[in-house]
Amino acid sequence: MTAWHLRDFEPEDLEAAVLLDQRSTTTSESPVFAMADVVAALNGRHPAVVAVVGGGLVGSAVSRIEVDRAWVVRLALDPQWRDQGLGSALLSALEHRLTMLGVRKVRALLPANETGSQAFVNSGFVRRDGLTLFEKTETVTAQTATLLQDLGGSIPAAGLWEAVAGMQAEKSLIERRIVLPLSQPEQAHGHGVQPPRAVMLFGPPGTGKTTFAKAVASRLAWPFVELFPSRLATTDGGLPAGIRLAFDQLSRLERVVVFIDEIEEIAAAREGGTSSSIGVVNELLKSLVAFRDEPGRLLVCATNSVRSLDSAFMRHGRFDFVLPVGPPDEEARMAMWAHHLRSAQSSEVDVRALSLASDGLTPADIAHAARTVAQEVFECSIDSGQRCRGTTDDYLRVIGATRPTVTQQMRADFLDDITTASRL
Predict the structure, then answer these.
(1) Which of 12, 29, 58, 254 has its CA 20 to 30 A from that of 303?
(2) How far apart are CA 366 and CA 320, in angstroms?
(3) Domain N-acetyltransferase: where (predicted)?
């Protein structure tokens, strides 16, 4: 006769079952099914069995049924009752109940050497080694997803940061100044580092400021919302009301990267401006102050003309960093061309020659040239019925015909702005 009594789980057993679970584990690895999953199965009245000795709970086995299959989401044993056959007895009783409900396959997924592992083997379960568990915690709730939809936001795809070709100097600066303090806030706080709340990216058009903003959101695994001044201006009350409403909605998100491109359109210097433009800047300044008070959020603004922005808007305390993003250097251009050539399956092209020839071109210019050659090669393949491939001469010809987005004057202004406006 066994020393324990087996019976079905009852709601009043819940507290004791939770305490037993805390005593039961024999590994530092987190269980595959969290305690919340176990409680949900118990509250959902899925089959569960407990073992009682002298009125105290010494073992439990909890399942979750999915049609004709079931998972054993927890097998917990009091340390004093291990290696006495209790685990096997609990599983046998649980299997009987599952079989009566039409279950034909029972599975369990445990960390290595966890409590009850031998009981599964003794009960006839087949151990399958060589499996890898993949899991992902979604960072967005249903409420957040609805709010993001209203704001026109999204969850950036994973890997955008790694996909940014070249621009290693800019990536390193953004990684260290922005991403690290936000992704490791406790460690940053321990060193007296305040995670940034607002960042200004400046540089000529087409240099990848928008790409960097989205990549930062992807790197942090935070939602991304881009605010368009033209859309905000359609709000009742005009642009100031649109800004106020948008930032009020954004305050309901736990984490978010907010991006405003060409911020000079709404935050230009107020000297000589109209009363309406002054009102827009004032509203934006008020919204920025409130935005900075909440953790877990980052405002990224981008401008092609940092010198045209209102001085109060650029004051210390508004933006933590003012970072230049300019045309790519030779190493970055080589990385970009290598990326485009891989996509086009053009492996015999002289990448260095393309990099040297495209000095002064922006990432957008380089992408345009690569697409042009790809289109030509595609049409050649269709017309000839054979696989055509772009040559170095093809790319050099198209590069030579590409008009640079950044003029010499823009480049000179940008270099001056690095000296006068950068805040690294």
Answers:
(1) 254
(2) 31
(3) 4-146
pLDDT digits (tens, 9 = 90+) for 180-238: 999 999 999 999 999 999 999 999 998 989 999 999 999 999 999 999 988 888 888 88
Q: Compute the distance between CA of residue 389 and CA of residue 372 in angstroms, rounded to an integer.
A: 13
Residue 137 lies in a domain: no
Position 1 pLDDT exceeds 60 = no
- Report how many helices (DSSP H) and strands (DSSP E) the chain contains, helices first: 18, 10
Residues 6+ apart with CB under 8 A from 138: none
Task: Give me the domain span that covers residue 20.
Answer: 5-122
The alpha carbons of the chain give a radius of gyration, in whole angstroms, of 30
Return d(Cα 168, Cα 226) in angstroms, integer. 25
Contacts of 284 (CB under 8 A, 6+ apart): 243, 266, 267, 313
Q: Is residue 134 part of a domain?
A: no
What are the tens digits of pLDDT across the range 30-49? 888 999 999 999 999 999 99
Residue 253 neighbours by CB under 8 Å, 6+ apart: 144, 147, 148, 223, 225, 297
| Greater pLDDT, 111 or 50 | 50
pTM here is 0.72
Domain count, the chain: 3
